[in-house]
Amino acid sequence: MSSIDPSPNSLPDPADDDSLARDLSRHRWLAGGCLALAAGGWAVSHAPFMPAGIAPALRAIAEAGMVGGLADWFAVTALFRRPLGLPIPHTALVPRNRDRIADGIAAYIDREFLEPAMLVEQVRRMDPAARIAGLLADPADRGRMVDLVAGMLPGLLSSQGDAPLAQALGRALAAGLSQADLRPALAGALRHFVNSDALEPLLREVVDRLIHLVHSKRGFVEAAVAGKSRWWMPSSVDKSLADTINEAVLGHLWDLRSPHAPAGQELRDWLKALPDEVADGSELAQRLLEALRQFTGPTVAGPLLHDLLAGLRDAALRDLERADGHIRSALHSVAESLAGAMQEPPVRDRLNQAVEQAFTAALPRWRQAIREFVAKTLKAQDVGEFTRRLELRVGRDLQYIRINGTLLGAAIGGLLYGLNTWLAG
After folding, report:
1. Which of 69, 172, 256, 260 has a CA that sits 20 to 30 A from residue 223's CA?
2. SS3 for 141?
């Protein structure tokens, strides 16, 4: 399956980016305020007016809070950029590992959401056959489905592109026939015809028309004989010769018409041997195949297909304009027939099985394509933009790490100060 090549702008700007940015800014100020409060407590603990018993405790709490807050500030900042712009190793983790993160996200989606067993189980729970049966069983839903299909047909039958389509079909037909060995197919068709009950009526019809043609052209034969006769030949002799020719031709045609006459039997024997002659590639077979290829070539088949498509389209469009048209009636009949068939459990089970098999067969290609699409889309993003988007969505929660680090550090500092004081007695 062809891979998808996302453009750098594959991920559109979400509408709430500004809101996320304002929310992140508020939480940054909140985390910074906690750190500033710890720093202020540390500064106040050095003031001369602080009581001797309170200043050490406040200093210990403030120092531990500052350490915790600064450490977590460094950790959170190092995810997205270099703290204070300093080239400290193992910082700016997201920009430097953008491709690895993209592959990881794609792998996570593939593993957690595209696992075949899990998706097949979801398809089974959906019970597609039951859903389709429910839609078809309801006359109102069935009518809406028919209206939907009928409404789509005029657009599908639009005359735009008829000529290119006919030309393409003509070229495809000619190319396919030019490369294919048509002798077996042509021989099979001829064999089926000469052994069918349609042969004798067709032969009689053709011969009868030839007999009628000879009767109607008796004067032409007489004129032709008289025109070729010598000047001294009596006209009665010319007429007798023309009558003899006409009678001989008519007699032979009558013999061809009868399967019992020698000439008729020879004709039928030749026709029965013709399929084998075509299959063996005789000169006659080559002429027949060449005529077939010329007939199906673009110069002949193209216009024929164009006229055929145009005629079918116009007839279908006229029919669709009628509320009681044949196409709508046929769609209603098909939907109603399907509704009745879907009431049978074996039919529903078979349909569910077919859907599951088709889904299972297509899933490996879809799975690989989705994974590649996710990874390539993320990698196609500008590194700075990728980092900004990620920080907007997780940065708010990361600020709570800074807040908790400051508060927890202060609490631990106070606890340790109290424990040290108690142990010192």
Report:
1. 256
2. helix
CA distances from 273 to 189, 290, 367 (A): 13, 20, 57
Distance of alpha carbon 56 from alpha carbon 368, whole angstroms: 63
Asked if residues 70 and 105 have their Cβ atoms less than 8 Å apart, the reply is: no
Measure the CA–CA gap between 164 and 172, rounded to whole angstroms: 12
Region for residue 14 given its phi and psi (left: phi exceeds 0; alpha: psi -120 to 50; beta: otherwise): beta
What are 341-398's pLDDT values in tens digits? 877 888 888 888 888 888 888 888 888 889 899 999 888 888 888 888 888 888 889 9
Model confidence, pTM: 0.49
In which residue are the tokens 């052994």 written?
195
**Residues 135/142, Cβ–Cβ less than 8 Å:** yes
Q: Could you give the CA distance from residue 138 to residue 201 in angstroms, rounded to a whole number?
A: 52
Q: How many CB atoms lie within 10 A of CB 311?
A: 10
* Residue 292 DSSP symbol: H
Among 134, 255, 125, 167, smallest CA distance to 203 is for 255
